[in-house]
Fold:
Amino acid sequence: MSDKNKDCFTGKIFLRLWIPAILSSVGFAFADTADAVVVGRSMGASGLAAISFSLPVYMIMYVLMYGLGLGGAAEYSKLLGKGQEDEGIDLFNRVFRTAVGLGLVLGLAGNLFLEPLVQVLGARPADVVLYAASLAYIRILVSGMPLFFAACVLNFFLLNDDSEKLAGAGFTAGNVCDILLNIVFVFFLKMGVAGAALSTVIGQAVTVFIYLPAVFGKDRRLRFRRCRSSPGETFACFKKGFSISVQYIWQMFFFLLVNNILMRRSGESGVAVFDVLQNISYLVLYLYEGTAKAMQPVASTYCGEYYERGKKTVKKLGLVFGQAAGGAAVLFVLAFPELICRFFGLEADITGTLGVHALRVYGVSLLFAGTSVILQGYCQACGEGKRTFLLTTLRGAAVLIPCTLLFSMADIRYFWLIFPVTEIVSLVLFLLTRRFLPESGDCDPARICARTISSRNEDLGELLGEIGRFGAVWGADPKQIYFVNMAVEEICMAIMQNGFAGGGEGYIQVTLIADTNGEFELHIRDNAEKFNPFSMDTGTAAQEDFDPDAMGIMVIKRKSKSFYYRQFQGFNTMVFTI
Structure:
């Protein structure tokens, strides 16, 4: 079987997800930087510093909404990969309700304790202009928290529900709205930082408005419906996502520390430069994060299918495509730091000079940071919480905080070395710990039989023989081996005769798992035209003119413990338990 180890699907699936994810990331990056660009050019260093003081508030939101969204969506993909659609829909509803509820509670608390919050973030009442600007920006930001939570969770679940185009369209529309309203509110209506914050919140509302119709129709798989509460299940999802969203907790403490250090060392000029660096990180690292986002549905689905070869292909593609996109952006930062400083409104004095130096140092760190972002996303999607938490904690706290304290004692020009030193040391330490925390799988590889056959019938006989030997090794009785072989043969023959009727090169991927409970789990994916063997008319099987193929499918449906079909990124995907 010459094609038995060929991966014919992962590259195409990844590209279908990667292109919309990168476009969304670019739009999100420009929307995030729009506040800084418009406010910086309108208000100068004071406006940039006010936005910088709001960063810890964003981090609080990201910890919760990314933890719920990432963890919930990854589990949703795993459930669909196992054919458990109803459980996946209930999971979505629980996660969404929890996310919106948290947004409401945090928004109310933020408004009640606004002034103490702003002072903790670093703004002092004595700095009248800066303090007032910080109050105005953060008040609107915390009031819009429910919209941020709803948009984030919906985006992750739509991306995992084969709705990546809609996820990207809603994201892009909201970001374009944010950018345009920024210009109108700040430049034309002279609303200052309040206009920048309001445009961001309205952009989130537009995103949610576009997403909602996708989950209301009865013909949609992902939909709103009543379901019982399960705090334990929801917390388990958050726990999985927290292994990567914990980075925002570390970033929150880092922002508080750096803002206070820079205010004492160089005043609002240093804080303004730091805000420019953060906005450049949006433009560059969002390309890596978009790549990780594209990897997640595929890797999570493959975990549900126990397709180990596909998981490794996903990681390789993520690193290659992520570095291609992110590396080009890094080269731009290194080549044009003066242009970037002028673009953000930094004046050509000590602030601009400091900004150019800081950008060059920071740009070096972005290549290493991007690699870590992709590895974090891959590990999280595969449920490797310990490895994800390790890399996230190294980058966000264990290495970063000591470096910050160390370089804070040096001249301000050397302060920015914290970024490349942190990223390089963290990545090296993570790679060195691979022998202690190896990549884990949900199943013993020896219990997995994965093969790819062509649409030519001669490959099928060899596969059936291999399945028979595999079943015997894992204690299957003759009847069970016979039925597994029958299921594979009938399904594959139905696909060959109906799905590949138009000709062309066809492939069928078969993965058989010997569960420890004595059952066999069978996953089949093909690149044929949309064709669901389980929808074949079996109602006439008892009549004289019955279809033999339909008879075989009817027997499989009756004998299988469960069976499920869906289209995943343009390919027919089936799973059933025998």
Observations:
- The longest helix spans residues 247-305.
